[in-house]
Amino acid sequence: MQPFSKLTGLVAPVDRVNVDTDAIIPKQFLKRIERSGFGQFLFYEWRFDEQGSTIPEFNLNKPRYQGASVLISRANFGCGSSREHAPWAILDYGFRVVIAPSFADIFYNNCFKNGILPIKLSEEQVEELFQRTDAKEGYELTVDLENKVVSDADGLSIPFELDEHRRQFLLLGLDDIGLTLQHADEIAAYEAKYASRLANSF
Amino acid sequence: MRSTIRKRDYYGVNMMSKQTMFEKIWNNHVIHSETGKPSILYIDLHLVHEVTSPQAFEGLRLSGRKVRRPDLTFATMDHNVPTKDRFNIKDPISKQQVDTLTANCQEFGVKLYDLNTIDQGVVHVMGPELGLTHPGKTIVCGDSHTSTHGAFGALAFGIGTSEVEHVLATQCLQQAKPKTMEVRFVGNRPAGITAKDLILGLIAKYGTDFATGYVIEYTGQAIRDLSMEERMTVCNMSIEGGARAGLIAPDETTFNYLRGREYAPQGEAYDRAVAQWQALCSDEGAVYDTVVELDVESLVPQVTWGTSPGMGTGITSSVPYPDRLQTENERKAAEKALEYMDLKPGTPMSDIPIDYVFIGSCTNGRIEDLRAAAAVAKGHKVSPNVTAIVVPGSGRVKIQAEKEGLDAVFTAAGFEWRDAGCSMCLAMNPDVLQPGQRCASTSNRNFEGRQGRGGRTHLVSPEMAAAAAIKGKFTDVRNWEFKTEATA
Which of B74, B90, B95, B144 to mutate to test the interface with A (most CBs of A within 10 A)? Predict the structure, then answer.
């Protein structure tokens, strides 16, 4: 996994509550057996009409938001299915940070497995970011994971909360399967202790 | 002396021992914990399907790892499977995904229930049917509706593909401990109110993220009175309220359901298991982090009007006026939803005409669901403007339904009788709505495009779906004219 420490990037807004995983990556694109190449399908039904033509009003299609790496949205982002295709599409499109007032649990967890930093800010702080993004073409945010601060060039500076383990995990780009396997003895001991239950004989 | 002991018992052991069912299951499965880090949790059962597993198996191959416990891992194919002419998967990418699962299960030694077995079906129908789902187990699957299995008092939750790989490789997961919530259903369930109405009513009242970060335990007389399959319907949609998982304490209903099933403990082992399972129930006086209540007696049959499962109301109500909602975000979301759904505020729910009916899915594709829908359909005819399909949740459900003659009731009424699969719950297979089509669906999500691009989904119970198929619009099934004879 690609580590994350600090990033300065263009901000793109998706101004909706309850952005669900079917919107992030519609199910017809879940049939691939690879992890890569999902970015082209991100928000597909909002970006393209039924004929496959670009819908110019959708923010990600506007020239001013091309190349964005910070996505801002509203509450309960990523609700719905457990599909990791959602963060894969977000990452493959070019986003490394998603900022919203709240996230659905499974999506939030999936982000960290893929080097994406989801940041929870208050409704008011997110509203402020929406206004600043709207007001200034080329609006950028700097996201500093080391110090847990989101800032811009105009003096805005917002500290954010993040579980320390998750922070370390992203900073170092750790392989969590490897971490669990460091406890192989404890796993084996558990399996031995509960062998009869696991074998259904109780 | 005696009083000292009592005091210590009171403040020590007794107080400490008042645990919720979730805490008991959690503590039984933590193999390692450190302050400030997620716990390492042992997983007793891993269910696998074709959509969220290929990249996980590929990860194992790339790192030279094996499946640690193939004996605790079971797979089936459901999302991509056609429900007619099922062996002929025409979409080459769908076919590749199904074939990839077959190859992966062979290579890694995982038991697969494929299209040639009668057990194949929607993964959350199949698991309980085989008796794989037990009280007290930790159960995961790369699918958010894994919460279904909580109906047995198992801690069951959906995971992403990276975690699928993690469980395949280690039989463990790193998990931060969720908070606990009691959802108390108050009162007795009135006639004509289904399990689906309980959970839709709950989400309509509290929203789609009220339980984010929590594991729910459903309690109350209305829950105790539910059959095992009805409990699965309730727990299935826990995720639609944002919950990590939803649990119901095991009781005689649970033990009777499980007894004799293929993967249930057999003979005397079953009695020993039941004794352990009975001890899982939350202790009297155990404290939950949050408690919410729902008055069951005032519920009416539910229908959703919007593009989020929380956007729902009773059949006796009308499409809401967005400008009367509380917050700006709610108003904007409701306006967008009504635009997508092509509905006008103030329209009575019972005036909304439909084009399609889908009865099936991991929420409502079990035998009792089909019985309930067939009872409504019997002796009636599907409206000429409506296409209605009935999709059994598994091969076994299909066989049982045919034994009882339900298929004949459905086909006589003009419903199509299909093979098992996820079908129109999500449009990954040929069962897809056309743009603009409006569907009464017994599934769990009414998101934009969920049943096909431009498709409009209204979530309802199987009874309400069958009644809508016949009337051509939503109707209050409590006033239904049940017929005992099928039409000739």
Answer: B144
